[in-house]
């Protein structure tokens, strides 16, 4: 059976069985539906239920992740109806672009997150108003607003949204997922999530954010190291200037894909900025229910109890 026909047949068999599935769009306009087990430099491994497929990167046009049931596939293997994915993942080895063009294209997806205690940055991961920022930007705050900047007739239009809900938080990885819930909101510009694993030391990167409240500020640099350990966590280190207010903003590669979330710098040095690898962001979004936040329940609906001890302290006999 040919490569194309095999994948088309696999899609038809499995499309109705996955309640939560990923979609690998092929260059021949067909698609494979299943659970992505791993993404390698030259291939993607997908569990389609009854077997595991290894799809060459050369055959892939795009990868999307969805948390809903996919519709029926056509006999040719192409999707007739697919529910919107929560975020868009980029294709490895995507072509590089001019930074100036990328900033114009991506700037509208980067926002300013304001609280009574300060401000930070963030970015939309889909058109429905879901955005990522740092946990420390919104930590302990009950009033959150998001400022969105759009280009209208060549002018920068600022819109402030004040009905912002915390959807999920991960304190240990310094990530928070917010949602704008104002009425009559438009569809927002959003980013594509790339791969920090695919980066090489010396690759060019750039950040967009609001350092010291200066919105839509772009800083450019290189990736200094991929595995800088700080307090037990691994970060991307970059020479792109990171300052207070950049926290929660995106770090992009030259394909315009987010590869990290900027969150700190060393104050007594220059060109020593750090970002959370985007792989942690994708894991956070994929398992956002496990990090769900509820303002009505101080314990939150989802929490993990401490594991039981190996031994219990015995009460002295009387």
Classified in CATH, the superfamily of the domain at 192-281 is: Trypsin-like serine proteases
DSSP helical segment count: 4
N-to-C series of helices and strands: HEEEEEEHEEEHEEEEEEEEEEEH
What value does the Rg take, in angstroms? 21 Å
How much of the sequence lies in strands comes to: 35-45%
Largest sheet: 7 strands, antiparallel
The low-confidence runs, each spanning 5 or more residues with pLDDT under 50, are: 1-19, 67-83
Q: Helix share of residues?
A: 10-25%
CATH topology of the domain at 192-281: Thrombin, subunit H
CATH class of the domain at 192-281: Mainly Beta
According to DSSP, the number of beta strands is 20
**What's the arrangement of strands in the largest beta sheet?**
11-10-7-8-9-13-12
Mean pLDDT: 80
Category by helix and strand content: mainly beta
CATH-scheme architecture of the domain at 192-281: Beta Barrel
What is the rounded distance between the termini?
Answer: 78 Å
Strand-helix topology:
Elements lengths: L2 H12 L7 E5 L4 E9 L3 E5 L4 E5 L3 E6 L21 E3 L9 H8 L3 E6 L2 E7 L5 E4 L1 H4 L6 E8 L2 E7 L2 E7 L4 E6 L11 E2 L10 E6 L7 E14 L2 E6 L11 E3 L4 E9 L7 E5 H9 L32
Parallel strand pairs: 6-14, 14-19
Antiparallel strand pairs: 1-2, 1-5, 2-3, 3-4, 5-6, 7-8, 7-10, 8-9, 9-13, 10-11, 12-13, 15-16, 15-18, 16-17, 17-20, 18-19, 19-20
Brief synopsis:
With 318 residues, the protein is mainly β. It contains four helices and 20 strands.
Describe what you observe in this structure.
It is a single chain. The chain is 10% helix and 39% strand. The protein has 318 residues and is mostly beta strands. Among the domains are: 3-85, SH3 type barrels (Roll); 192-281, Trypsin-like serine proteases (Thrombin, subunit H, Beta Barrel). Strands 11-10-7-8-9-13-12 form a seven-stranded antiparallel β-sheet. The longest helix is centred in the N-terminal third of the chain and has 12 residues, at 3-14. The protein is globular and about 50 Å long.
């Amino acid at each position: 059976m040919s490569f194309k026909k095999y994948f088309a047949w696999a899609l038809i068999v499995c499309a109705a069985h996955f309640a939560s599935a990923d979609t690998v769009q092929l260059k021949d306009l067909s698609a494979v539906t299943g659970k992505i087990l791993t993404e390698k430099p030259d291939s993607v491994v997908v569990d389609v239920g009854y077997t595991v497929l290894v799809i060459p990167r050369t055959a892939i046009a795009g990868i999307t992740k969805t948390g809903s049931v996919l519709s029926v596939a056509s006999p040719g293997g192409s999707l007739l109806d697919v529910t919107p994915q929560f975020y868009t993942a980029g294709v490895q080895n995507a072509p590089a672009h001019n930074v100036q063009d990328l900033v114009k294209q991506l700037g509208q997806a980067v926002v300013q997150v304001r609280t009574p205690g300060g401000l930070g940055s963030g970015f939309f991961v889909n058109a429905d108003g879901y955005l990522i920022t740092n946990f420390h930007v919104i930590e302990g705050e009950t009033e959150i607003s998001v400022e969105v900047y759009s280009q209208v007739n060549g002018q920068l239009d600022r819109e402030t949204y004040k009905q912002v809900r915390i959807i999920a938080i991960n304190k240990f990885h310094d990530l928070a997922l917010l949602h704008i819930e104002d009425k009559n909101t438009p569809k927002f510009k959003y980013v594509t999530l790339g791969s920090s694993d695919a980066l090489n030391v010396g690759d060019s990167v750039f950040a967009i954010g609001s350092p010291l409240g200066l919105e839509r500020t772009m800083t450019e640099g290189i990736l200094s190291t991929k595995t800088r350990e700080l307090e037990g966590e691994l970060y991307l280190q970059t020479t792109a200037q990171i300052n207070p207010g950049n926290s929660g903003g995106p770090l992009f590669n030259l394909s315009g894909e987010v590869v990290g979330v900027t969150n700190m710098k060393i104050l007594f040095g220059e060109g020593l900025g750090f970002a959370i690898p985007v792989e942690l962001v994708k894991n956070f979004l994929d398992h956002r229910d496990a990090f769900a936040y509820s303002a009505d329940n101080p314990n939150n609906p989802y929490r993990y109890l401490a594991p039981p001890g190996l031994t219990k302290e015995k009460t002295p006999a009387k």
